[in-house]
Amino acid sequence: MSNTAFVKGHRRTSSDITFKELTRRDAQAAMNKELLKLLNTAPAGLQERTKKEFDAFENLFARFLRETGPSVEWDKIKLLPDDAVKTYGELSTPDASQCQELLSKLVVVKLNGGLGTSMGCTGPKSVICVRNELTFLDMNVQQIEHLNKAYDVDVPLVLMNSFNTDDDTEKVLKKYSQIKVSIHTFNQSRFPRINRESLQPNPKSFGPESSDGWYPPGHGDVYNSIYNSGLLDEFIKAGKKYIFISNIDNLGATVDLNILNLLINPPNGNAPEFVMEVTDKTRADVKGGTLVEIDGKLRLLEIAQVPKEHVDEFKSVSKFRIFNTNNLWISLEAMKRVVEDKTLHMEIIVNPKTLDNGLNVLQLETAVGAAIKSFEGAIGINVPRRRFLPVKTTSDLLIVMSNLYMMKTGALEMNPKRSFPAVPLSKLGSSFTKVKDFLARFASIPDMLELDHLTVSGDVTFGRGVSLRGTVIIIANHGDRIDIPMGAILENKIVSGNLRILDH
User: Which of 14, 67, 180, 490 is the most exposed place for a label (fewest CB within 10 A)?
Assistant: First the structure.
């Protein structure tokens, strides 16, 4: 099995169901027994919280044992009715006098559970420097501080940490004590990894010797975790109505007053309980989850749920034209209801991993957007691409550090000197994967205002003041090194070998 996540579904084969049922019961009973043993090793102050987390994990595990095959019956999928996705342009802009009232009803949650390991960093990804020596976290705090000052409000900023990021994040938060932002944190659950062969929990205790036995179960855990933290009730009592959830590394996910106005002052009187921001798919986004209708309900369809024979159809830009940005607006009251009534349902993402010691394990995860079908009146809003600016790799980091963007109060705006709004495609090779190596290879970030496409592979460095325009491909062959000289202008060029420059 490859290290690729896949989603468990609801189709059961008819062969030998009795045998499967009995082995399922055995696995479930054995898991329950092992979890009770594990619970006894939890630190005294964590017992109650851990019990709640283990209950949620056992529910997920029971579903994992029960559900087989792709979780979507392809024939049931319908393309969206016209009213399911609004276009951003049809939203009305609130008067300046309304903004304070609207913002007084809002809570902003940033998903901050990820480490920067994929970019060669230790600690939370949110403390990687992005621009002007400011980190993702700095920029998010700055955005909320600007809102609070501009409209004289107190929009709280809430971080969902994981056990991987919590300690480091708490240390960093001390530097914001003089800033006008109420910052809250809560932790997502800590679930035990499952031994792939025995289907038993991998960790034997909460001690340091089992540190690689645990995992945070994906951002779908936000619903139960914020409820269990007590923050959900606290915000409802304070008169807050909606929560805006987004990834901390999406620098385009700023508070949008037009969307908030639609929720607080719906034109037809019925406010949606759940809004998913979607945006138009390009060839670079063919794997992104999309919205479809199944059995009269909006559903988030992820590539992992698609039967193999329909994957090409799923990737089609003409059939599925939008994808999920993971910017979500959810009613706090509705969130409380679905957790308490246990009507929250998200597909299980099965994530196979191989640990450093060679052990094969499974992680059962969920995605926050998959809960869309558990809410009433859910809709999508097709937003401009500027609201989706994630930084997952150093190729993305190059784009947001460049002069394509200008920074204003913690938010990035496309440079007005760029003559067209599309973001260039940037592909940097393995020599650039780690942030430290990436920064060492640029004496300064090139001028990219007129760039369409950049591919760089091999041992390549850039001098100061380089300009990249059109399509630029730079490939240093194995054993060769290419140094792009200071002040070079590369327009529609292919550079290969030891700096041979060809017209593209």
Answer: 14
Residue numbers of the chain with a pLDDT score lower than 50: 1-2
Residue-level pLDDT at 6: 58
427-448 pLDDT per residue, tens: 999 999 999 999 999 999 999 9
Rounded to whole angstroms, how far apart are CA atoms 26 and 444?
60
**Rounded CA Rg of the chain:** 24
Q: Which domains does the chain have, with CATH numbers?
A: 74-387 (3.90.550.10), 405-503 (2.160.10.10)
Terminal-residue alpha carbon distance, the chain: 41
Please list the active-site residues.
Answer: 392
Distance CA 325, CA 245 (A): 11
pTM: 0.91
| Tokens linked to 416 | 């007005």
pLDDT tens digits, residue range 369-426?
999 999 999 999 999 999 999 999 999 999 999 999 999 888 999 999 998 888 999 9
Burial class from Cβ neighbours inside 10 Å (0-12, 13-18, 19+) for residue 239 reads exposed
Q: How high is the pLDDT of residue 376?
A: 93
How far is the C-alpha of 148 from the C-alpha of 494, rounded, in Å?
A: 49
Helix (H) or strand (E) holding 273: none
| Torsion from C-alpha of 408, 411, 412, 414, nearest 10 degrees | -70
**Buried b or exposed e, range 409-421, using 16+ CB within 10 angstroms:** ebbbebeeebeee
Closest C-alpha among 186, 172, 100 to residue 141: 172
- 192-215 exposure pattern, b = at least 16 Cβ within 10 A, e = fewer: bbbeeeebebbbeebeeebeebbb
Counting beta carbons within 10 angstroms of the beta carbon of residue 114, is it exposed (0 to 12), middle (13 to 18) or buried (19 or more)?
buried
Kindly give the pairing relationship between strand 194-195 and strand 360-365: antiparallel
Q: Provide the token pair at 60.
A: 């997920």
